Amino acid sequence: MTNVKVLLMMGCPEVPIQTSIALYLSHKLTSSGFDVTVAGTTAATKLLKVSDSDGYYAKKLVDLDKTLEDIIEKKTDFDVCFAFMHNDSGMTYAATVSAISQARMYSIVFGRHAEELSQTIEFDCEKIVTPDVHNPVRLKNKLDKVMEEIAK
Fold first, then answer.
1. Could you state, in chain order, the average pLDDT of each consecutive group of 10 residues for the chain (152 residues)?
2. Residue 133 covered by a domain
3. Would residue 4 count as lying in a domain?
4. Which of 3, 23, 81, 140 could form a disulfide with 7 if both were Cys (CB 3.0 to 4.6 A apart)?
């Protein structure tokens, strides 16, 4: 999988499972040979920096708005994007990337209103949906299946 660029895009870290799943997904994809960039809001990246202070799991941690700017200006792009969303602003970020990037989109929709939120997605993506807020195991299991597919 060398040279396959993956973007993990995190919005507001209000729902607890986002941080653990982002670290898990970053580590698993990096270990599988993907070039992984984790982009987040200021709060989301601060949580990751505290949780992974040595950068073991999230090797490339960057500002989300700067990353969007770089994609718009054609300074970078990605092959795959995992967009974390539990509210409308997360969906807005994902829709923006869908419009400006050639990346294959995966929408990771979680939280108490995940099913309703996922039904409002109007851009092309694969949806990974779970109503979980605290326990990341069901979402982890769904992502493991997706990672198996993209690693082929």
1. 88 92 96 96 95 94 97 97 94 96 97 96 97 96 94 80
2. no
3. no
4. 81
Smallest CA-to-CA distance from 118 within 143, 88, 141 is with 88
Tell me the two tokens of residue 130: 């779970």
Looking at residue 2, its pLDDT comes to 63
Among 68, 17, 18, smallest CA distance to 39 is for 68
* 137 within domain boundaries: no
Q: Is 73 exposed, middle or buried (0-12, 13-18, 19+ CB in 10 A)?
A: exposed
Confirm whether 1 is domain-assigned. Answer: no
Q: Which domain holds residue 44?
A: 10-67+82-124
Q: For the whole model, what pTM was predicted?
A: 0.95
Task: Name 57's Cβ contacts closer than 8 Å, sequence gap at least 6.
Answer: 23, 24, 26, 27, 30
| Rounded (10°) angle between helices 64-72 and 88-100 | 30
The total number of structural domains in the chain stands at 1
Q: In whole angstroms, how far apart are CA 4 and each of 37, 97, 151?
A: 11, 17, 10
CATH code: domain of residue 101: 3.40.50.10160
